[in-house]
Specification:
elongated, 15 helices, mainly alpha, about 220 residues, 2 domains
Length: about 220
Amino acid sequence: MEEPLLVGIDLSTASTILIELMIEDAADPSVYGEIARANTHRPDILALLIENPDTPDEVRKQISGAMRIPVKPKSEVVRVHKPPEARAQTILQRIQKLSVSERIQLALRGGREIRSILLRDPNKEVSLTVLQNPKITDTEVELIAKSRSISDEALRKITKRKEWMKNYNVLLALVNNPKTPSGVALPLVSELKTRDLGLLEKNRNVAEGIRATAKKLLRARKPY
């Protein structure tokens, strides 16, 4: 039995704004079909799917049958291009109208653009939920690990995922980030390459204890 994509949210009663955002920046193509199946009683939601150029043709056919109207294939739907800044601002404005619970669900299933916005959400539960999004990439995690505006809770959460910590760039970013708690960063120092230890020793942004540990490890690695 197929597991519902959007755990914890009833798509048949979800707000139009939430569904608009999910459609516009879908992390998984199957979200279109799930929204369509849950909203056969809501013509306005079905219309949103029809007008979206990314809605798969098989979903369009389902909607055509439900609404008993001919539906254009997605190849004939005109895509409206907005400058990236304007698009991001529009998405942000709509996100700000959502409740905390809706933003949490969006953080869990939104696409990359939505994830980048919700990482800065003032509610920590929302921002931390972004790290649970199954579509988040190693590149995004590395950028989060480098961020000096991210919460230390988020940095701690990254270290608890073994698959992320196998990524050397993520590990290196965490050690060099002044926001990473010393108790979290110190055990990671020994995993750095010698060249990076040398750079860490000179990094005045990190705690003295971390620099001292890097210096000690460098001396231990130098051949006599």
